[in-house]
UniProtKB/TrEMBL annotation:
GO terms for biological process: hydrogen peroxide catabolic process; response to oxidative stress. Residues 2-14 have a biased composition (Low complexity). It comes from Streptomyces himalayensis subsp. aureolus. Heme binds at residues 125, 164, 213, 411, 415, 422. Decomposes hydrogen peroxide into water and oxygen; serves to protect cells from the toxic effects of hydrogen peroxide. Its EC number is 1.11.1.6. Residues 81-469 form the Catalase core domain. It catalyses: 2 H2O2 = O2 + 2 H2O. There is a cross-link at residues 392-415 (3'-histidyl-3-tyrosine (His-Tyr)). The active site is at 128, 200. GO terms for molecular function: catalase activity; heme binding; metal ion binding. This is Catalase.
Amino acid sequence: PVQQAAKEAVGKAADAARPDGRTDGIPGRPAPQPPSVVEPTEPKEPLPPKPDQSGPETFSPTGLPTGADQAAMAQDGAYLTTAQGGRLYESDHSLKAGSRGPVLLQDHHLREKITHFDHERIPERVVHARGAAAHGVFRGYGTASQVTKAAFLAKDVETPVFVRFSTVLGSRGSADTVRDTRGFATKFYTSEGTFDLVGNNIPVFFIQDAIKFPDVIHAGKPHPDREIPQAQSAHDTFWDFVTLHTEATHHTLWNMSDRGIPRSFRMMEGFGVHTFRLVDAEGATTLVKFHWKPKLGVHSMVWEEAQITGGMDPDFHRRDLADAIEAGAYPQWELGAQTFPDTPEQTFEGIDLLDPTNIVPEELAPVQPVGLLTLTANPSNFFAETEQVAFHPGHLVPGIDITDDPLLAGRLFSYLDTQISRLGGPNFAQIPINRPHTPVNDMLRDGMHQTAVHRGTAPYRPNSLDGGCPFLAGADTSAYIEVPVPVPAAEKVRKAPASFEDHFSQPRRFWLSMSPVEREHIIAAYTFELNKCYEQAIKERALQVLANIDPDLCGQVATGLGLPAPKPTETLAEVDPSPALSQVGRTWPVDGRIVGIVAGDGDGAVDGLRSVRQSVLEAGMVPLVIAPAGGKLDADGEPITVQRTFATARSIEFDAVLLAGVPAPADDAYGARDAKAGDTADSEGADPRVLRLLSEAYRHGKAVGGWAGAEDVLLAAGIPVQAPGVVVGEDGSGALQQVIGLLAKHRVWERFPAGV
Ligand code: HDD
């Protein structure tokens, strides 16, 4: 249906090209034809929105259009024009002295077109270059109003938002599923000005002072001589840095855990990381840490899956987010707040709240929900919106203030500064996606890319020429007034407080909070990354760091490195685990999960597939039909569109794989070569790509199964049919019900060597 619509749209556009009805302005040239659709597969079926998922209207409190609406204003009208609006009769050939003669310098259209193209790129972000974003709406619950006067957190206030997710280390074109921290930056277009919550999916940071930021990023980025490896932490400079700076131990441990390879942006937590300060209407203050809690739960890939995805579909997370929104499965997060009394020490239960390498366990300070974020629309133009959006932790609104976290202090400088080279000058707030949805009445003037036409003669204040305008606001009229916190009498020094020196008790708590299977993944990740380092001294130093977290962790990684395990040099801290840190052991909604259904070959197979496909849709999930070749599967009822072929389907795309009977055997020599027969115990008869699909899904802890003879195919793929999470039914509906139960737990954890 989507392709049909695209075809029709191309046809209509061609018809609309000339008011006189002709479809081409060049006499003698054939009218343009809609492009032929050769792609054998179809994209995902749109999901019917659930009643509670109907999209809230994106609106601006001031009635100004949102960024998306403004973008739609570009590229309008029937005729192709120059940048100056002059209509063009030809745009495919340079102006020449004769068709075989030299190109003429007087061709102003050629020069304008090429010059503009030459300058299409802007510098990519120095960190977080690779990202994807979406529009949405935030609704306050009102629960935070006891502690903050921020208008957007008041009950039922709806605020438009733009959220950008990102990886940190890779370039703009790098793969989505690399092991890395993910950015989670939210721009709230509030009625009191823009508020940006520029967070990550990991609640702690590598360093405690912004002056170290260039160092940690230089160490993580590719080596400066050969510019490799891209988007990886598995190299010497990264491990050199994080082992020489033991304050990086906690963040590194989170990166090596499953949090470093999320299944989807929709299934990540987000954290403001720093402690902020909330202010109520009376001026009373409370310290706060912000959390985003995804409605779909926190889920990850397994490492092999992430690696295969990097090759098969480097845009996996970007595609997943866009597809879900387009299908009406709007991702949602609750914004939560952990609050703490604003005492002079700024500690809670002995944890220093100004140290960004610390978390406060949720068991000690529960996360209280304060509002709901729903992403409802994809950007209309990647460059205009996702690339040009400029976040800044200093974009604050009344009711939210900063603390003296020294990492935050440097950020307050950096984000404004970086936009000046990235977006070409100081007027980036005028770019549609960055415009506040409140009236702007500043006295900033001129500069590169000034698009406002300021009126008045007196851009200074006080003035008498412009009638004294504009006036200043007060606390009663939503002015931003810094909290007058006392500054301790002290000497100027370049040093950190002694409380910043505990680098191991928090990582130890994280390690002790993990389930056995999560610990196994962490051990495998450290072993992989350190084995990719060349320097022996770095590996030995890394083992010493691990010994100070936990001897078992250290011992197992040491075995993998073929090195002796050192003894701890610090006393292992006595800490209670925080069960909230583990991703395993709970159940979650299955909305938007992807079920691959491999078509069977025999009589009645298509009917069985049709009814299961329908049931998958009714459960709010996405069915993808897989067959030997593209096209339609025909039987008595409506033909069913094939969405993936044996050549294009790979396990990483599916959360579960079902066989609707016995699939067609290998149909060509290419198929047999494409999948290594060695993937399976016995590939006789079945297409090896189907066997690989099954064995890979099984290995990655996914639900697999089928009906009507599927058992033999599963066995041929080397899958024991009695194993946990293998579902073999008489018919499709029984099998699907079991699959839904399995998907609610994300993976069949029992299948991993350590079990749960
Ligand atoms: Fe940063 C981008 C998150 C520390 C300097 N950062 C950036 C983005 C996110 C974060 C999500 C991407 C925003 C977008 O999508 O456009 N950064 C963090 C978090 C940090 C952190 C959670 C620690 C708690 N960052 C940090 C420090 C500095 C920077 C200490 C510098 C002193 N970050 C930047 C930057 C970037 C940026 C260079 C690059 C592009 C941009 O700002 O707009 O200014």
